[in-house]
Amino acid sequence: MGSVSLKIGDGTARFKRATLCSSAVNVLMLFSVLTTNLFALYAFTSSPNPHPLHHSHKNISLISEQVSLILREIDSSQKKLAQMEKELLGYESIDLSRPNIANELKLFLKQHELPLGKDSRTGITEMVASVGHSCEKSVDLLSQYMNYKVNGPCPDDWSLAQKLILRGCEPLPRRRCFAKSIPKIGLYSFPISLWKNVSDRIMNWSGLGCKNVQCLIGKKLNRDCVGCFDLVNGYENQRYVKPRGKNDFLINDVLALGSGGIRIGFDLGGGSGSFAARMAEKNVTVVTATLNIDAPFSEFIAARGIFPLYLSLDHKFPFYNNLFDLVHAGSGLDVGGRPEKLEFLMFDIDRILRAGGLFWLDNFYCASDEKKMALTRLIEQFGYKKLKWVVGDKGNGSGKPEVYLSAVLQKPVRV
């Protein structure tokens, strides 16, 4: 029948599928059937009595008491089963009775019964707040995040929220306060905005080491963002149109592989949004997934007229199946940890990519031959057609070459 695993603390609890709840229901039904049959047998086999009416009332009263007892047992069992189901699903994994829990967190996580009772389509009877299961491990930080003045200004604590997200507390609960508002003065119109430097004043620099764009220029924020905030000088405005090595594919060449069917795309860890900007010039809409790690990526991307999506790569992508014509990923695909973690990510990429769509792996850093082979085996598991596949070396400034993999793969049609 299979099993279901729940990670609780440092251990793993396993429950046999359809065993715990169904066994309890079966025992209850068997008890009810046996009790009913015994009373029926007693009623039909009891000896004749000179006062049948008196004994009939007595038997009916006894049966009524037993039926009431059975109904109470059924109601109690149903409540226990519902509680077990909630615990298994993690609905009540956060102990709200703990001290120093913010009232707003209690209100948000409180379950609300549906006004018209049970929903016939979904079977649910109450609404459960959407909050990450891992929030229970960071409940003190979560309570701090939910400690604010209702209808007042929100604390300037976006860095706290991001810390929770990176700990797996995603999605975060909603808040009833007004986020800090920064006047967006000096924005350029589209498409001029794609390659114009952004003003420092339209971004929130709290919680960051740098306090202006000039500080970010020249910094290696990650492998896909080296000087990526300089849109005028340097290499950023030449990316995807002028290669620096054999691993750098050109946008026109990749779009030609899509046979003119590339309209919408998704970019994972897209730096300052230059990939989406180049695609916008080709009338292709690209959503860029990003976080504000060491820089205001989201605001910078939005100022360029591109769509940033603020989420971690551990979160299931909030898109329906088979939507995108193109998925682009660089070294941000390297989620670290166990190989299964990369598998989960790859399966979600495959889910949102339509049949015949392109997966563009752009300069993925292979720290070792073992890692390169593991990624190659994983890609081959999906049966993608290799339209382009290049493994090349790059210097890292220290004289020691590093190995990178670039590929354009086409998702097959599966039946």
UniProtKB/TrEMBL annotation:
Compartments, record wording: Endomembrane system; Membrane
Molecular-function annotations in GO: methyltransferase activity
InterPro entries reported for this sequence: Prob_Methyltransferase, Put_SAM_MeTrfase, SAM-dependent_MTases_sf
Bilayer topology term: Single-pass membrane protein; Single-pass type II membrane protein
Coiled-coil positions: 67-94
GO biological process terms held by the UniProt record: methylation
Protein keywords: Coiled coil, Glycoprotein, Membrane, Methyltransferase, Signal-anchor, Transferase, Transmembrane, Transmembrane helix
The keyword Transport is assigned to this record: no
GO CC annotation: endomembrane system; membrane
Transmembrane segments: 20-44
Similarity-based family: Belongs to the methyltransferase superfamily.
Protein name: Methyltransferase type 11 domain-containing protein
The organism of origin for this protein: Camellia sinensis var. sinensis
